[in-house]
């Protein structure tokens, strides 16, 4: 099965190479095959994961998977539109109301795939950027703390819980249904 996936990836990469190079000359095809094989090798090497991850799928197949996926997409699109309008308002406002802060967010997602999807969901909404992922914690640059994260007012755990609720919970409640 893995062989066929590798062959499919190689074929797609070669097709893209031919389209981009616009040439069917042997030297171009040879170079394209070397590049495509290198990419296939790198993907294979980096995607195998730990032995435990190899035997355990990050997806949880269930009847609730499809509604949860649709709920996630809806939540993501709503957050995307709101964040775009919010950031546009901030840019247009002469006072430029921003209060950038780095916050730590905790996730209950166990799989690497789940954490990466959550991090990308956060990063793709304007005003937030996932800077680092360490185990169950994500370090996020947030354009405006909106008064939730006040230094000295709350413990680090309280700040993490508030940031998690404000930033990640909206995505994670859907992701937990179909991702580990």
Write a structural description.
The protein is mainly alpha-helical. The protein has two domains: 2-48; 65-178, no CATH class. 62% of the residues lie in helices and 11% in strands. The protein contains six helices and three strands. A three-stranded antiparallel beta sheet has the order 1-3-2. A hairpin with a 2-residue loop joins strand 2 and strand 3 (137-142). Helix 1 crosses helix 2 (26-47) and helix 5 crosses helix 6 (156-178).
Low-confidence stretches: none
Largest sheet: 3 strands, antiparallel
Average pLDDT reading: 84
How many structural units, i.e. domains? 2
Residue share in β-strands? 5-15%
Please report the total strand number as a whole number.
3
User: Count of helical segments?
Assistant: 6
Shape: extended
Quick take:
The protein has 180 residues and is mainly alpha-helical.
Task: Explain the layout of strands and helices.
Blueprint (H helix, E strand, L loop, with lengths): L1 H20 L4 H22 L3 H5 L9 H28 L8 E6 L5 H13 L3 E7 L2 E6 L13 H23 L2
Antiparallel strand pairs: 1-3, 2-3
Notable characteristics:
180 residues; extended; 6 helices
